[in-house]
Amino acid sequence: MPHHGHLNSLLGFMPRRNIFLPTLCIVLLFAVWTIRIPDTRSYPYPPVDWFEPKSSSPPPPPSSSESPSSSSSPSRTKHPPPLQAQESFSSPPHLNSIPGNEVDLSQPDAPFVGWPLKRVCDEATWIEGLIYICDNNSGGIGNIRNYIQTCIRYALEAGATGLTIPKIRKRSEKDLADLFTDFLPFDYMFDEQHFRDAINNSCPQITLYDDVKDIPGVGESPMINNITPKDFGNRDGCESMDQNRHTDRFGQSFRGWLKDEKHGHPPTKEKPRLIRFNWGVLFDWQVYRDGP
Question: What is the model's pLDDT at position 252?
Answer without folding.
Answer: 92
